[in-house]
């Protein structure tokens, strides 16, 4: 079965056209429309398009997730996906499957690019969304690009969400899905020696957790691609506060996510919830990407340093003018699309 996102409504299409048109204006005019002066924090300067986009969101009074019910927040996540989603390439096949999980079936979506011979490299992808929102559809464009540009099969995992399923449900599903892909590598046409994990935000967290949980397995991830990962759920790093208001991902929203995901404060220090508190020795090689105006910036950078200090090969990149979630807006932000391609290139190199 060919799978993918449902078609957006006419209203959503019009919003997307308007947003892309406004964001295509010259940088100098973008600054004027956004308030006239560059925004600087912690030695970083906000990209003019991002500054304008954030100003448009404020004018439109788009609600933050923490002001919404869980159900409404999930709908908003799907709407946000369409507004500035990148154009996607044609693939050989996209299909939905069900994997066995610790508490029932786990939905997954498998993307295979054109002209890829079996056994092929693969990446198990975990979506972002604070463990509360997001799913296969919200990250469908990113997964299509990842498969096409990194030249690998991508398996996106629809792990259980909170608050219906609190920690460690997401981590348990992520681990089960990775192990299932390993066990069924032959049937999936995958080279078991070249299976990576990847994810953004909460998905970066799960990628790091799977990378650590499988250290005793016969087959473990060959590589981990961590895209602005949330690795400290105690929210203790300085950028949580210095960037916690006005840059899309709000500190209050993160607290809302954690209140839904964690069973109690003590879970925040559990290494399966917060890889920052884990012994990371023996973890697979990694590429860690952060954004200069992301509240998760400091913990992502610190985690990359921790991996390196433990002898793990790691490459760290900060996209200085970007914000949390920029890869999903790379259809409208000219500097976000090359940033996404940097990530896919890192993955392709690691799996070649």
**In the CATH classification, which architecture applies?**
3-Layer(aba) Sandwich
**Strand residues, percent:** 15-25%
Q: How much is the radius of gyration in Å?
A: 19 Å
Question: Which strand order do you get reading across the main beta sheet?
Answer: 3-4-6-5-7-8-9-10
What's the CATH topology name? Answer: Rossmann fold
Q: CATH class, anyone?
A: Alpha Beta
| First and last CA, distance | 29 Å
| Overall shape | globular
What is the fourth-level CATH superfamily? Alpha/Beta hydrolase fold, catalytic domain
- Overall domain count: 1
Q: Sheet with the most strands?
A: 8 strands, mixed
Low-confidence stretches: 1-5
Total beta strands: 10
Average of per-residue pLDDT values: 94
Q: What is the helical fraction, as a range of percent?
A: 25-40%
SSE topology string? HHEEHHEEEHEHHEHEHHEHEH
Protein name: Acetyl esterase
Pfam family, one: Abhydrolase_3
Family: Belongs to the 'GDXG' lipolytic enzyme family.
GO molecular function, one term: hydrolase activity
Notes on the protein architecture:
The chain is built from twelve helices and ten strands. The longest helix is centred in the C-terminal third of the chain and has 16 residues, at 336-351. Helix 2 packs parallel to helix 3 (48-60), helix 5 (140-150) crosses helix 12 and helix 6 (169-183) crosses helix 8 (202-213). Helix 8 (202-213) links the parallel strand 7 (190-200) and strand 8 (224-227). The protein has one domain: Rossmann fold, CATH 3.40.50. Mean pLDDT is 94; it is low at 1-5. It is an alpha/beta fold.
